[in-house]
Amino acid sequence: MTPVQADLYPSRQCAEPRWQERLDPVVHRQDLDNAPIAAELIARFERDGYVVLPKVFSAAEVAVFRRELERMLADEAVVASGKTIQEPDSGAVRSVFDIHRDNPLFARVARDERIAGIARFILGGDLYVHQSRLNFKPGFDGKEFYWHSDFETWHVEDGMPRMRALSCSILLTDNQAHNGPLLLMPGSHRQYIHCVGATPENHYAQSLRRQEVGVPDQVSLSELAASHGIDSAIGPAGSVVLFDCNIMHGSNGNITPDARSNLFYVYNHVGNAVQAPFCEQSPRPPFVAERRDFRALDIQPQRYI
Amino acid sequence: MTPVQADLYPSRQCAEPRWQERLDPVVHRQDLDNAPIAAELIARFERDGYVVLPKVFSAAEVAVFRRELERMLADEAVVASGKTIQEPDSGAVRSVFDIHRDNPLFARVARDERIAGIARFILGGDLYVHQSRLNFKPGFDGKEFYWHSDFETWHVEDGMPRMRALSCSILLTDNQAHNGPLLLMPGSHRQYIHCVGATPENHYAQSLRRQEVGVPDQVSLSELAASHGIDSAIGPAGSVVLFDCNIMHGSNGNITPDARSNLFYVYNHVGNAVQAPFCEQSPRPPFVAERRDFRALDIQPQRYI
């Protein structure tokens, strides 16, 4: 496959890192007073590249989600689906992908107006799910996840043309300062860092565990952190973290006894559907990066009791 | 060597973990009004097992210490001393031991009234340095350090009879929530957890990098965390963290660009000097656990400009 569109965000093509300004809006609507949440929160998303919405889901709803999570982690059909990330040693399931298609409950969550409605406002139109997953990060030896921009990977490896996507993480456990919360550099979504190095074949199978290509250089990260600082996304179970596709983020490991789990949906504007990857490799499989169905989500109010 | 004293804190001797109450006082003086710091801070140390004292050392003094740290990390004689911990891959120095003997500047710091004077009050009498080191934890891939009680190791591997020791960490960099600060379970110093498993020979050479024996079981850690919570020792450079020998502590890794360094002194009461280890192995070498000189420190005011 070859790109039909010019590569406006090249990466992994040069021996030296480069920075460029973001070419796309962060919030695609101007009429903030019509937003489904306070205009101030949308403005904060625009400025910082993320926002934490406390307790969007009730404790009872979180309990429903967690029961389904526990069922799935123990379900042999899920383990055998080939759509999971497992621990190299124990085989324990850490992530299950494609839940917006395979799991009826979590497919409804993807269309939930309380989250997808906000994403639709920010991205200015109809959406589809580019990626979905259930994440389970155990206590005691939760692994770190190094700094990255999601968009860099989605662009280079999946062929997402422009920055018109965002991630939505629904916290199923309390996220505290000490148990490896999402770390973000507020405002870093306005710069795009061209990473160094070419993409190896089948990079995804390894990079979802530990990324080594598509990783920003240490000098760029130090500059970004010095100018933007580092914040963490902390909140009780049921809270939602919305973050822009290009914000620099990562997480430290977790030695605390507290496991962390979340539901994760990436919303992409239907006009920004993926094309051929902007690298020499085949695209990642569709359970990691949707390319089977770009139809607009039917966003509706949902309840789960 | 065989212990001349009964083993009041057995560990690594049974197949099942056991808990016991601490047999020793935390603060060995009653006259808190005579303490060199506010009585309230001493009371907090007794209750929580640690206390953070902000900016005990001035920015100018921290600068002096950091210059010496940088000189040492680059000093081939230091690297060749055999008293360092180095990265397995790069050989970069991460810790230098025995600085209370080998380094004139840091030997003075060990006797500094601002820290040793407080330790002398808490431990109720004359002190010597059981262990000293300079730690350098790099940014981007600082490793985690798993939960442990220092006393468990000092008792079993070094032969420290009783809980009458404390650690003093002088922060040479800002410690923030995100760059892998010391995590502590406040109040956990009142229970002693008997760990499972026997001590292998020359355990120290590996355990200083990554501990696997002398590690509490996950059930005990979960119970401790549930009843005590987890706090982090955060403060600007120049601050001092004092913590009891038996408090449960550890640290997460650090993906942030901010390196962390500190000076670390363990003070032990002269009446609690180490004897034969409470295990079947030879004691750890004296640069890790002092057994050459138990004479009382000459504690004096110090300035470093």
Automatic annotation (TrEMBL), chains A, B:
The EC number(s) this enzyme carries: 1.14.11.55
InterPro entries assigned to the protein according to its UniProt record, in alphabetical order: EctD, Phytyl_CoA_dOase-like
Keywords: Dioxygenase, Iron, Metal-binding, Oxidoreductase
Cofactor requirement: Fe(2+)
Gene Ontology terms for molecular function: 2-oxoglutarate-dependent dioxygenase activity; iron ion binding
Pfam families the record matches: PhyH
Role noted for this protein: Involved in the biosynthesis of 5-hydroxyectoine, called compatible solute, which helps organisms to survive extreme osmotic stress by acting as a highly soluble organic osmolyte. Catalyzes the 2-oxoglutarate-dependent selective hydroxylation of L-ectoine to yield (4S,5S)-5-hydroxyectoine.
Entry similarity comment: Belongs to the PhyH family. EctD subfamily.
Entry protein name: Ectoine hydroxylase
Lineage, highest ranks first: Bacteria, Pseudomonadati, Pseudomonadota, Gammaproteobacteria, Pseudomonadales
